[in-house]
Amino acid sequence: MNPVACSAPRRLASFALASVPGSERVALAQVAESVADLNLSPRRLDKLKTAVAEATMNAVEHGNDNRPDLAVEIEVFYSGTEIIVTITDHGGHGGSDWADKGDDTEIPDLDRKLSGEQGPRGWGLFLIRHMVDDLEVTAEGENRTVRLTIRTPVRGD
Question: N or C terminus: fewer CB in 10 A for the chain?
Answer without folding.
Answer: N
